[in-house]
Structures are given as structure tokens and as C-alpha cells.
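Case study 2.
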Amino acid sequence: VQLQASGGGLVQAGGSLRLSCAASGRTFSTYRMGWFRQAPGKEREFVAYISREGGNTAYADSVEGRFTISRDNGKHAMYLQMNDLKPEDTAVYYCGVYKDTGVYSYRGSYDFWGQGTQVTVSS
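Prediction:
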């Protein structure tokens, strides 16, 4: 599977963005997925997780209540709605496929990252 994240940009604090993750292949609905982000000089960190049908989601404490993860299996796409953005949300955002092993919030539990999309939040 190949993944491509898009939708990033420059936004003022308090603003919103919606990221998309397009996936190739016919088996998208069999994948559990997640969003991670990486700020300059920092490790890639967990943002959100979603189950195969979207019924189960999980978020990092830092984004809980502000971000919403969703997916459309018919379109082979996953989304991240980001509201009330803060300067500390500035990072490159990546989508990944959960390997069905290990902790879902752990970077090493994901594969097929693809290119990320830059989100910059100005104060």
C-alpha cells in the first residue's frame, strides 16, 4: 500500500485544517490506521488512531477534544480534522498503517508512511 498525506498549510492559532490521507490498493478497509507528527528536532509522535470501520478511535492527550480522525473506506481515505490549532501543533504530519502488533500509539507499530504534509501554526 502507498500513502499520501495532503491538506497541510499555514494557519493562525485558533484556526482549522483538514488533512487527508489517500491510500492505494483494494484492501484499505482491512487496515487500522493512524496519524503521527514530527516537529523539527523531535521524535515522530502519535496523534490519533482509527479502527478498520472507524468505530474505535484514540487520541494523544495533547490533541484530545480538538482533533477528529475519520475514514471513508469507499474512497480509500482517512482524515484528520484539526480545530483550535496551536503553535505547538506545528509539524509534518504523516499517516501510517498499523501493523496489528504492538501498542497503537507507538511509532514502531506502523508501516507504509509515505510523504507527510507540513502544518504550520502561527501565533
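The CA atoms of residues 70 and 79 lie 5 Å apart.
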